[in-house]
Design a protein that fits this description.
Largest sheet: 3 strands, mixed
Protein name: Glutamate--tRNA ligase
Helix content: 40-55%
Number of helices: 19
CATH superfamily of the largest domain: HUPs
Radius of gyration: 32 Å
Strand content: 5-15%
Subcellular location: Cytoplasm
Main location: cytoplasm
Strand order of the largest sheet: 1-7-8
Structural class: mainly alpha
Oligomer: single chain
Number of domains: 3
Catalytic activity: tRNA(Glu) + L-glutamate + ATP = L-glutamyl-tRNA(Glu) + AMP + diphosphate
CATH architecture of the largest domain: 3-Layer(aba) Sandwich
GO molecular function: ATP binding; glutamate-tRNA ligase activity; tRNA binding; zinc ion binding
Length: 489
């Protein structure tokens, strides 16, 4: 192992040469930080005409679940971040990982270590008592095969360099230097012969042809350990190039604290299913978490691919703001295709309004979208806003709506009934002209008519524009609802 300064540096990648990967552990949902890491890997590969791959790091068999794997794939597909090839499952490659470990063991870059847990614990306690860093200093590091005990279990450790330094020219963090004396002789094979995460990652990245490792900056220390393995395999068989590293800062809450559920940090599926967000809004928001292009706030997928460069990612932690995400989602709601919104809203609406069925109600729901989406920040608000269209008579009134419908309001409704019954065109514009003329004739403000109309037609004190409501409900249904309330004593 070299003792001089070893430097890992980045260069400008050739078109089509870039291979990135996203490698989540399936021990839980796809969280927002993981989704952003996947996005940056996807964008960097797309920007350079390369490949973006997926790897499921399922070596923790006790915590990895099929449900978590399915949730990760589901979340990635929803965001349009599925891999370019079939995913690699790390556990299935254990024999390959172990083979590499034995190559390094035979070549003298790794060693059998027979230190017991009790011996390690005692040495760790001694280091703490003496207030010095604990480093593995195993007497088995330079033992020969003749000295190996025949009846004791062992782990395989890397022979990390003890002299010199390693420098990584990180694409995000800049130059990072570690003294090799700070590197420990980490385990690559456990006592049962199974590979550790540190080994599996390096072997998989090599075999998958990964050129750029883009991941959270909590992995910076791992990079220096993983380079020990890479350099060992370079010496053994060559053809193990150093990857380009880009360690992106983690995401914090709006208050600067570590991101948690109290900040709105949920699984990607919850942003879709519980918060009712659109994937393009989440895509855009994640893109802007730590990266930017001038003053642009609304960035399309094509623009993101054209503009993205990993070197433009901020070095400091980004702050997650759920309010900004919801505001951005409102923009994408307003820009979305009406038929698509109706399809997305339909399942929730069916639970809120039993009279709604996709077979009979989709046309009305689609026609209502231009009116409803102006006021909505998410799909849930769209669904709730559409309930009045499919409410069954007589309508249930919220308290504020019931309060509006006093005796004077009911008298106005009776007179409105007579006027609207004679209305022929039943268009938004025609209805507006008729009601405004009626208000002028009565010498009252338009609101004096619009408020009781809104309450009688929707059962709510707020709604889309009252003339849009009348037009969407149609003449027969509108008059029937008004009549129900006007007839009440």
């Amino acid at each position: 192992m070299a003792s001089a300064t070893d430097t890992v540096s980045a260069g400008s990648p050739a078109k089509g040469s870039v291979v990135t990967r996203f490698a989540p552990s399936p021990t839980g949902y796809l969280h927002i930080g993981g989704a952003r890491t996947a996005l940056f890997n996807w964008l960097y590969a797309r920007h350079h005409g390369g490949k973006y791959l997926l790897r499921i790091e399922d070596t923790d068999r006790a915590r990895s679940t099929d449900a978590a794997i399915a949730a990760i794939f589901d979340g990635l597909d929803w965001l349009g971040l599925g891999g370019d090839e079939a995913p690699v499952f790390q556990f299935a490659r254990s024999e390959r990982h172990a083979h590499v470990a034995h190559q390094m063991l035979e070549a003298g870059h790794a060693y059998r270590c027979y230190l017991t847990q009790e011996e390690l614990a005692a040495r760790r306690e001694a280091a703490q008592a003496e207030r010095r860093p604990f480093r593995i200093d195993s007497e088995w590091r330079d033992a020969t095969a003749e000295q190996w005990p025949a009846d004791l279990t062992y782990v395989v450790r890397m022979k990390s360099p003890r002299e010199g330094e390693t420098v990584i020219a990180d694409e995000v963090q800049g130059s990072i230097t570690v003294q090799n004396s700070e590197l420990d002789d980490f385990i690559i094979l456990r006592s049962d012969g199974t590979p550790t995460y540190m080994l599996a990652v390096v072997v998989d990245d090599h075999d998958m042809g990964v050129t750029h490792v883009i991941r959270g900056d909590d992995h910076i220390n791992n990079a220096f350990r993983q380079l020990v393995i890479i350099r060992a395999m370079q010496a053994i068989e060559g053809g193990w190039p150093d990857p380009v590293y880009a360690h992106i800062p983690l995401i914090h809450g709006a208050d600067g604290a570590k991101l948690s559920k109290r900040h709105g940090a949920l699984g990607v599926d919850a942003y879709r299913d519980e918060l009712g967000l659109l994937p393009e809004a989440v895509f855009n928001y994640l893109l802007k978490l730590g990266w930017g292009h001038g003053d642009e706030e609304i960035i399309s997928r094509d623009q993101a691919v054209a503009w993205f460069d990993i070197g433009d990612v901020n070095k400091g932690a980004s702050r997650f703001d759920i309010k900004k995400l919801l505001n951005l989602n409102g923009h994408y709601i307003r820009e979305a295709d009406d038929a698509r919104l109706a399809r997305l809203v339909a399942p929730s609406l069916a639970k809120l309004a039993p009279a709604f069925t996709p077979d009979s109600g989709m046309d009305l729901l689609t026609r209502a979208m231009p009116v409803l989406k102006v006021r909505a920040a998410d799909l849930n608000e769209l669904a709730h806003g559409a309930v009045f269209l499919f409410a069954q008579r007589p309508l249930l009134m919220v308290d504020k709506a019931a309060a509006i419908l006093n005796d004077d309001a009911k008298e106005i409704l009776r007179q409105v009934l007579t006027v609207l019954d004679a209305e022929n065109g039943w268009t938004t514009e025609g209805l507006e002209a008729t009601v405004k003329q009626m208000a002028e004739g009565f010498g009252i403000g338009l609101g004096k008519i619009a408020q009781p109309l809104r309450a009688s037609l929707t059962g709510q004190a707020t709604s889309p524009g009252i003339f849009d409501v009348l037009a969407l409900l149609g003449k027969d249904e509108s008059l029937a609802r008004i009549r129900d309330q006007a007839a009440k004593s």
